[in-house]
Amino acid sequence: MIIPAIDLMNSKIVRLYQGNYSKIKYYKDDIYNKLLNYHDIQEIKIVHLVDLNGAKDPNHRQIQLLKQILAKVNIPLQIGGGIRTEKDIEVLFRAGVKRVVISSSAIINPKEVKKWFNVYGGNAIVLALDVLINEKNEKEVLINGWQNYSKLILEDIINEFSEVGLEHVLCTDISKDGTLLGPNFVLYKEISSLFKHIKFQSSGGVSTLHDISCLKSCGIYGIVIGRGLLENKFTISEAIQCWQNA
């Protein structure tokens, strides 16, 4: 499926270049109008929201903004950014979130996150694993808004959380994110073949309809698309049709 992505910082729609907070681009689009437009498209099953303030510093999460969005727009959302505690999860679920996206917490406090999987189930949690391919060709996972190396490898984390019912993994190649230079097809083909029980969402680099066709052939479950849609490289309808026809 096609999953539109919206990154929010200081209540504005933005995109970062390769996760760099000093390379931020603001967009004039209104968050509510954007989501209402997506709501009218039947083929969109979920929208991906990222609280970049929260991802950088959990003490500055845009929780009030997220609550307002959930109250005004009736569309399934998966939300991430700075989620560190079960209370954070409960607040979002009570507000109407379909799935929460957990990233750094899974690395920093894996025992606690495993408990969340046992409580809420694998369909309610997306594990976001953001990687850089190192000199050994290993998929090293970064945390804290991509500011720190975890020294852990993607495959090891997926294996660990598969034991508690992991279903959804959002995998981003940071070197591709926000670049419009094309996705890492090798990465997605490899992990989709290795972990057939996981519904992978790809993220980063999509700029053409051809990218969408190639990604579907890699065996992934969905494509998270941000900048390509914001900058009108193609329309959401064109992206959905391309996915369906690939």
What does this structure look like?
By secondary structure, the chain is of the alpha/beta class. The chain has one domain (2-245): TIM Barrel. 37% of the residues lie in helices and 28% in strands. Strand 11, helix 9 (209-217) and strand 12 (222-225) form a beta-alpha-beta unit. Helix 9 runs parallel beside helix 11 (236-245).
Which terms summarize this structure?
TIM Barrel, 12 strands, 246 residues, 8-stranded parallel barrel
Low-confidence stretches: none
Radius of gyration: 16 Å
**SSE pattern:** EEEHEHHEHEHHEEEHEHEHEHH
The CATH architecture classification is Alpha-Beta Barrel
Distance between the termini: 11 Å
Provide the helix percentage.
Answer: 25-40%
CATH topology value:
TIM Barrel
Count of helices?
Answer: 11
CATH class: Alpha Beta
Annotate the secondary structure layout.
Layout (H helix, E strand, L loop, with lengths): L1 E8 L2 E6 L2 E8 L3 H9 L7 E5 H5 L6 H10 L4 E4 L5 H10 L3 E4 L1 H5 L1 H11 L4 E9 L5 E5 L4 E6 H9 L5 E6 L11 H10 L4 E5 L5 H9 L4 E4 L1 H4 L5 H10 L1
Parallel strand pairs: 1-4, 1-12, 4-5, 5-6, 6-7, 7-10, 10-11, 11-12
Antiparallel strand pairs: 1-2, 2-3, 7-8, 8-9
Helix pairs in contact: 9-11
